[in-house]
Amino acid sequence: MKIAIGVEYHGGWFQGWQSQPNRQGVQDHLEAALAQIAGTQVRLHAAGRTDAGVHALMQVAHFETTAARPLQAWVRGTNAHLPPWVRVRWAHPVADDFHARFSARARSYQYVLYNHAVAPATQHGRVGWYHRPLLLPFMQQAAACLLGEHDFSAFRASECQAKTPVRTMVTADVSQQGLFFIFSFKANAFLQHQIRNMVGALVYVGQEKLSVEGFADLLQQQNRTLSPPTFMPDGLYFTGVQYDAHWQLPDCDQSWQG
């Protein structure tokens, strides 16, 4: 049978989602824990890969197994074999043609930025930080330029292996909660470091080092070397995956609550 799982993790404890030679990827820990319940090796396939330091409020993955177990065994049993900074939130049986990555219609991320002269202590590793005041209206106007289908080469990592830089952005918004700015993005897919690069450029706009028009020009020029530096991974959260309703998966969309 094929089982889909929803996963939450603190990315600061891992070297990204993908399996690593030193077994310090999120995937490594989950596969080892699931194998304890299945009684045999398990291979996970995820909706998207996250880099080192990037968190997930709702990552979705699937695996195949011949082991018949209650769904709660895949949740509570697996969690009993995991470190406290990663948790399976739910498990759900899916049809053979489901694929966590290829069945996904869209993916959502949020970047949480603490804006204060002094870096946070209790939120260290969980949020990004910028020390100078930022202007929300300018960042909101610039973010709106990202909506629709674009070539996002201006915000693509040089080592990105995606076949095409064209993506369709359906949500690009900036909001404020006290000292926190929340950058929200939803697209059919994302390029490597795309969100951290977009946030870096939007922060330039927020401190008036780059105009809204200049931000729009960056997008059109499609040249990564002209864009601001990549922002830190600490505040980036994979918040959800959109699937067609017929898969009947539990809630696959979360948001940062502070």
Please give a structural write-up.
The chain is α+β, with helices and mostly antiparallel strands. It has 2 domains: 2-103, Alpha-Beta Plaits, CATH 3.30.70.580; 106-237, 2-Layer Sandwich (Alpha-Beta Plaits), CATH 3.30.70. 21% of the residues lie in helices and 28% in strands. The protein is built from 5 helices and 10 strands; from the N terminus they run βαββαβββαβββααβ. Strand 2 and strand 3 (55-64) form a beta hairpin. The protein is globular.
Question: What structural class results from the helix and strand content?
Answer: alpha+beta
Order of helices and strands: EHEEHEEEHEEEHHE
Fourth CATH level, the homologous superfamily of the largest domain: Pseudouridine synthase I, catalytic domain, C-terminal subdomain
Low-confidence regions: none
Largest sheet: 10 strands, mixed
Q: So what's the overall shape? A: globular
Tally of structural domains: 2
Distance linking N and C termini: 37 Å
How many β strands by DSSP? 10
Approximate helicity band: 10-25%
Tell me the fraction of residues in β-strands, as a range. Answer: 25-35%
Map the helices and strands:
Layout: E1 2-9, H1 26-38, E2 45-46, E3 55-64, H2 71-79, E4 86-94, E5 106-115, E6 128-130, H3 136-144, E7 148-151, E8 166-177, E9 180-187, H4 194-206, H5 212-221, E10 236-242
Parallel strand pairs: 3-10, 5-6
Antiparallel strand pairs: 1-3, 1-4, 2-3, 5-9, 5-10, 7-8, 8-9
Helix pairs in contact: 1-2, 3-4, 3-5
